[in-house]
TrEMBL record:
GO process annotations (BP): protein deubiquitination
Name by which UniProt lists this protein: Ubiquitin carboxyl-terminal hydrolase CYLD
SUPFAM superfamilies, alphabetized: Cysteine proteinases
Keyword Hydrolase appears in the UniProt entry: yes
Alphabetized UniProt keyword annotations: Cytoplasm, Hydrolase, Microtubule
Subcellular location: Cytoplasm, Cytoskeleton, Spindle
Annotated transmembrane regions: none
Domain Peptidase C19 ubiquitin carboxyl-terminal hydrolase, chain residue ranges per copy: 24-204
Name of one Pfam family that matches: UCH
PANTHER family: 40S RIBOSOMAL PROTEIN S3A
One cellular-component annotation, GO: spindle
One Gene Ontology molecular-function label: cysteine-type deubiquitinase activity
Gene name as annotated: CYLD
Length: 227
């Protein structure tokens, strides 16, 4: 355990601490969905550090301390988290979420995020989405759904998000404080893409609802939008 607070790893420090054998979060008993989510959310960014410290109205302080002291701080300090620490969290999720399979079965990352953010910590939804003519919907992460695109062989995240929003006719109601995106995947048998290039920055200008945008012809503020 690492009870002191450690900042997220950046640049050379991230490479030095996280690269090599016996680094990252140790997998055990179908924990890969949770390991990958926790690593993505906390190793190199502070966007969700409020989950570790802030006393939310519904916050379970025991789960919060396990997440902070047994997983995030050791990951940032030494670059390694034992499977036992993640299992400790999984046992608490099983107890709080009334689902007995959190300790042994593979889950969808969205199910894990909804449980820990909404039911256990009581965090407000991070995303507000709206489809054409439909009611606004709140969520904690966005999962990319799209048909196979023959021209996208090795896409980047920017392309996938744009294609997914366009095909689903979705817009972001407001700029999110944190934009968690789940990549397209189809289990062990079939992968839509063998590789996806991470976009280090994400341009959401064209994904925002009612946002003023530039006309691609004359450069003035656009009055019409063609999908």
């Amino acid at each position: 355990q690492a009870p002191d607070s450690f900042p997220p790893l950046r640049n050379e420090a991230a490479v030095r601490v996280l690269r090599g054998r016996m680094k990252g979060i140790q997998g055990h008993c179908n924990s890969c969905y949770m390991d990958a989510a926790l690593f993505s959310l906390f190793s190199c960014t502070s966007a969700l550090d409020s989950m570790l410290f802030k006393p939310f109205p519904l916050c379970d302080r025991n789960v919060q301390s396990i997440l902070r002291d047994e997983i995030v701080n050791p990951l940032r300090k030494t670059g390694f988290v034992r499977a036992r620490s993640v299992m400790h969290l999984r046992e608490q999720l099983t107890e709080k979420g009334q689902c007995s399979s959190f300790t042994n079965a593979e889950k969808d990352p969205e199910e894990f995020l909804n449980l820990i953010m909404h039911q256990i910590l009581g965090i407000e939804p991070l995303l507000k989405l709206q489809s054409e003519g439909q009611k606004e919907q709140d969520c904690y992460c966005y999962q990319i759904f799209m048909d196979k695109q023959e021209d996208l062989v090795v896409p980047d995240v920017q392309q996938l998000v744009e294609h997914s929003f366009l095909s689903s006719d979705l817009k972001l109601v407001e700029i999110p404080s944190c934009f968690i995106i789940q990549m397209p995947r189809f289990g062990k048998e079939y992968k839509m893409f063998s590789k996806i290039i991470p976009s280090l920055e994400l341009d959401i200008t064209d994904l925002l609802l009612d946002s003023p945008r530039e006309c691609c012809v004359c450069g003035d503020v656009a009055t019409l939008e063609c999908s």
